């Protein structure tokens, strides 16, 4: 059985590595793709160019989205996703290093599944996976 795709959109390689390790600990580490910015994430999510083959590049069951990305930020990318019929229901967890009430509220309004503080804790990701119905 092929494990569901998890997409990490994170420009900091250390944070991306830590997220991958936590995903592995909760049983979701076998099919992870890390993209460094919103532009690449949009290409992936649209299935553009090298990502056109949906068998090789399926839509993610969960996206871990950094709030602070170069260029388009995480909230802007999430707002775009919510406007796309094929993507509007994807599960997205916002990643941030600060507990900012305004950012948390904006994430909630954009229907993010949750706001996770970096570094991500194993139990928080395990709970998120259970809440969004991802089998581990």
From TrEMBL:
Name its GO BP terms in alphabetical order. Answer: phosphorelay signal transduction system
Q: Which UniProt keywords apply?
A: Phosphoprotein
Q: Which residues carry this modification: 4-aspartylphosphate?
A: 66
Asked whether the UniProt record includes Phosphoprotein among its keywords, one would answer: yes
- Domain of life the protein comes from: Bacteria
Gene3D superfamilies reported for this sequence: 3.40.50.2300
- Show the InterPro entries listed in the entry: CheY-like_superfamily, Sig_transdc_resp-reg_receiver, TCS_response_regulator
Q: Where is the Response regulatory domain?
A: 5-133
Q: Which PANTHER family does the UniProt record give? A: RESPONSE REGULATOR RCP1-RELATED (PTHR44520), TWO-COMPONENT SYSTEM REGULATORY PROTEIN (PTHR44520:SF1)
Can you name this protein?
Response regulator receiver protein
What phylogenetic lineage does the species belong to? Answer: Bacteria, Bacillati, Cyanobacteriota, Cyanophyceae, Gloeobacterales
